Amino acid sequence: MQINNAGLVLLHSFFNPLFSRLDLLTEAGAFVSNNAQHRAVHVLQFLVTGQTETLDQHLTLNKLLCGLPPDQPLESTSDITDAEHETCFELLSMIIDNRPAIGAMSIDGFRGNWLVRDGLLANANDRWEMTVKPRPYDVLLAHSPFSFSVIRHSWMDKPLFVTWKP
């Protein structure tokens, strides 16, 4: 499956604190409801694009990262609250500010250069595999403090193995 938000994996280590702060997770780390799980899918897409409307076909990676089957239909629109908007803005600002290797960059610049990325996603029995289409400046990933080669959250059915080579 082709996806266009493959860079979302760069943020995966922030999902648990983000979802907790937005009251989408229980103290045990599970989603509080199906609605909260669906909301998390849309919050992740808002992080990537800044938009509140996304066709279901563009939410495949988000669904996997939130523990939903990729073929489960979801609504295309989600009303992002002011609190969710502010929390996402703060998270992206913090990430940009703490990654000096990428230089001064706006949130939209970060989204366009790092998060909105083409990739190929495949189901491999015991795991998902994703290959991210490289760009020349991906050499900066070698200086990244974030690990994203294998992604596994408690709410995911199986891990996601990521190949992202500069």
Can you put this structure into words, describing what you see?
The protein is of the alpha+beta class. The protein is built from five helices and five strands; from the N terminus they run βαααααββββ. Strands 1-2-3-5-4 form a five-stranded mixed sheet. A hairpin with a 2-residue loop joins β2 and β3 (127-132). The radius of gyration is 15 Å and the shape is globular. The two termini are 21 Å apart.
Short summary of the structure?
The protein is an alpha+beta fold and 166 residues long. It is built from five helices and five strands. It has helices spanning 15-21, 34-49, 60-65, 82-97, 107-115; strands at 2-3, 119-124, 127-132, 150-151, 160-163.
List the helices and strands and how they pair.
Blueprint: E1 2-3, H1 15-21, H2 34-49, H3 60-65, H4 82-97, H5 107-115, E2 119-124, E3 127-132, E4 150-151, E5 160-163
Parallel strand pairs: 3-5
Antiparallel strand pairs: 1-2, 2-3, 4-5
Strand content: 5-15%
Describe the sheet with the most strands: 5 strands, mixed
* CA-atom Rg in angstroms: 15 Å
Give the strand order of the largest sheet, numbering strands 1, 2, ... along the chain. Answer: 1-2-3-5-4
Mean pLDDT: 90
Distance between the termini: 21 Å
**Oligomeric state of the chains?**
single chain
Question: Helical element count?
Answer: 5
